[in-house]
């Protein structure tokens, strides 16, 4: 039995964000959700790049099907009524029926992997042309359907679900730090929902090498329902609630209730949802319209020159299609004067960066309290009661930077003129440089803790994050090595503080 997709889709900014950095795409053969990240560093552009590559690949499939139809017509293939040649297809850009896709599941996976690789390469080129885009990235959940089998490519923490016979199954596995802790049995699902590092992604499409997606295939059957969504939905709504809302008989009603539930949970992120039903295909079925959602429907992607390779391949070596590494500062050709440059982001656009903060900033009440306590302490010092005030201050601890390492401080992160109200209590071996850049910034701004034990737990978590980042950067460095040594011009030396090819991006990932 041949099946077809019938889908509804929606993308919105949510209740808190100022712009929509999500993108989506739905056609009779492809379903895709991409959640851009990076805030001021153009997460919307990154997700739009991914969807642009999807559109190009889908158009090539339609053109190939159109060519096959024309060839069959030229060979005198009978028409649908058996009376003569079938009429030529007028336009190659019309959506093709799912049954006309002749690729086998492994070939569909190759198509999806190629889409992800080209999107990653294009992001690297944009960052090389405009360094202000450094740190942008996107998740990708991409499905391709041939009438029987579904191919799926996944990278990041957007999710794909299958609802079959009333049972909801997650088809993807989050590439996040918190998910790795769940896998190791170190935290529960309930703890994960409130973990301070729940938005740290271990894999994301950001122009760096070695960002291969998870690939899988699934046999579909009549009555199946698919859900693709960004974490503006699945990051706020539990799976059991998702399953009950998705089970509504009318997909449009299910979509509306899922959006309402995301709003009820705060609507703190962009929300993108695609729901697709698997129906029996008929000859007279009307194909659904192609839909382009979110940032991909509004942004123009700048044209840039391809990134030059770091080292030439040997003459007998074939290009393996690997994404080029982002060049070091000063390497490669500078962007031309005609290359569009993204304007400086407004403060509102930087709200996305809060998604990757180590923890939420202190509440207004706590800031007021800390200021009041500092004032009281000053008065006590001036009034001769310094001993008691300092004794209270010694019960307070926070995490901060001690030169290039992490340290636990005793006291308050304030001073009275030349008098510091704190002292270094413990210096830890974890280096700031081994953390993602946004984590480094949080440590330098200091992290409030409730006690010495709490401060040590925070340091332990930071150490685990740094170890994971070190491992990933070492893997990237190994993959950046050329296939074999070849003579090449010696590059100009760069200052010691130039970023290394494995430097962490600014989006909170490693």
List descriptors.
Protein phosphatase; transmembrane; 510 residues; PPM-type_phosphatase-like_dom; 11 helices; PP2C; single chain; 7-stranded antiparallel sheet; Phosphatase 2c, domain 1; 2 domains
Low-confidence stretches: 82-99, 308-346, 351-363, 493-507
Q: Span between N and C termini? A: 45 Å
Largest sheet: 7 strands, antiparallel
**Helical run tally:** 11
Would you tell me which CATH topology of the largest domain applies?
Phosphatase 2c, domain 1
Number of domains: 2
Q: What value does the average pLDDT take?
A: 78
Shape: elongated
The counted number of beta strands is 16
* Strand-residue proportion: 15-25%
CATH architecture annotation of the largest domain? 4-Layer Sandwich
Class inferred from helices and paired strands: alpha+beta
**Helix proportion range:** 25-40%
**The level-1 CATH class of the largest domain:** Alpha Beta
SSE order in H/E notation?
EEEHHEEEEEHHEEHHHEEHHEEEHEH
Q: In words, what does this structure look like?
A:
The two termini are 45 Å apart. This protein has 2 domains: 279 residues, 4-Layer Sandwich (Phosphatase 2c, domain 1), CATH 3.60.40; 114 residues, no CATH class. Helix content is 31%, strand content 21%. About 17% of the residues have low confidence. The longest helix has 32 residues. The chain has 11 helices and 16 strands. The strands form 3 sheets. Strands 2, 3, 4, 5, 6, 9 and 12 form a 7-stranded antiparallel β-sheet that branches. Helix 1 crosses helix 2 and helix 8 packs antiparallel against helix 9.
């Amino acid at each position: 039995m041949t099946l077809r997709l019938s889908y509804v889709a929606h993308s919105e900014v949510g209740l808190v964000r100022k712009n929509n950095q999500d993108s989506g795409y739905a056609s009779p053969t492809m379903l895709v959700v991409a959640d851009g990240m990076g805030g001021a560093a153009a997460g919307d552009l990154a997700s739009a790049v991914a969807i642009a590559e999807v559109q190009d690949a889908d158009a090539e499939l339609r053109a190939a099907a159109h060519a096959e139809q024309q060839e069959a017509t030229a060979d005198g293939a009978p028409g649908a009524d058996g009376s003569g040649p079938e009429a030529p297809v007028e336009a190659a850009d019309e959506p093709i029926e799912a049954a006309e896709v002749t690729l086998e599941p492994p070939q569909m996976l190759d198509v999806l992997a190629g889409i992800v690789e080209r999107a990653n390469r294009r992001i690297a080129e944009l960052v090389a042309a405009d360094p202000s885009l450094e740190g942008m990235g996107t998740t990708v959940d991409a499905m391709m359907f041939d009438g029987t089998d579904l191919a799926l490519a996944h990278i990041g923490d957007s999710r794909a679900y299958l609802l079959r016979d009333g049972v909801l199954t997650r088809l993807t596995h989050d590439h996040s730090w918190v998910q790795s802790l769940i896998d190791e049995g170190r935290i529960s699902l309930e703890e994960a929902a409130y973990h301070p590092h729940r938005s740290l992604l271990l894999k994301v499409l950001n122009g760096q090498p070695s960002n291969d997606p998870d690939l899988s295939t699934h046999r579909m059957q009549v009555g199946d329902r698919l859900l693709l969504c960004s974490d503006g939905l699945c990051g706020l709504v539990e799976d059991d609630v998702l399953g009950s809302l998705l089970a509504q008989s009318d997909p449009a009603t299910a979509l509306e209730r899922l959006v309402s539930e995301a709003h009820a949970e705060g609507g703190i992120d962009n929300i993108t949802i695609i729901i697709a039903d698997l129906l029996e295909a008929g000859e007279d079925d009307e194909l659904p319209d192609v839909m382009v959602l979110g940032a991909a429907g509004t942004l123009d992607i700048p044209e840039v020159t391809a990134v030059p390779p770091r080292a030439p391949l040997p003459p007998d070596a074939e290009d393996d299609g690997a994404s080029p590494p982002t060049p070091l500062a000063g390497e490669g050709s500078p962007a031309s004067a005609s290359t569009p440059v993204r304007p400086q982001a407004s403060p509102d656009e930087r709200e996305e960066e809060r998604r990757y903060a180590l923890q939420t900033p202190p509440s207004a009440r706590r800031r007021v309290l800390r200021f009041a306590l500092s004032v009281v302490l000053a008065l006590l010092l001036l009034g001769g009661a310094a001993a008691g005030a300092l004794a209270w201050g010694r019960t307070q601890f926070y995490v901060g930077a001690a030169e290039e390492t992490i340290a636990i401080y005793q006291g308050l992160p304030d001073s009275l003129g030349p008098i510091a109200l704190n002292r270094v209590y413990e210096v830890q071996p974890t280096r700031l440089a081994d953390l993602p850049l946004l984590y480094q910034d949080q440590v330098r701004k200091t992290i409030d803790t409730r006690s010495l034990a709490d401060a040590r737990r925070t340091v332990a978590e930071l150490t685990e994050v740094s170890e994971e980042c070190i491992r990933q950067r070492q893997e990237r460095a190994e993959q950046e090595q050329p296939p074999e040594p070849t003579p090449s011009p010696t590059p100009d030396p760069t200052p010691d503080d130039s970023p290394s090819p494995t430097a962490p991006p600014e989006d909170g990932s490693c």
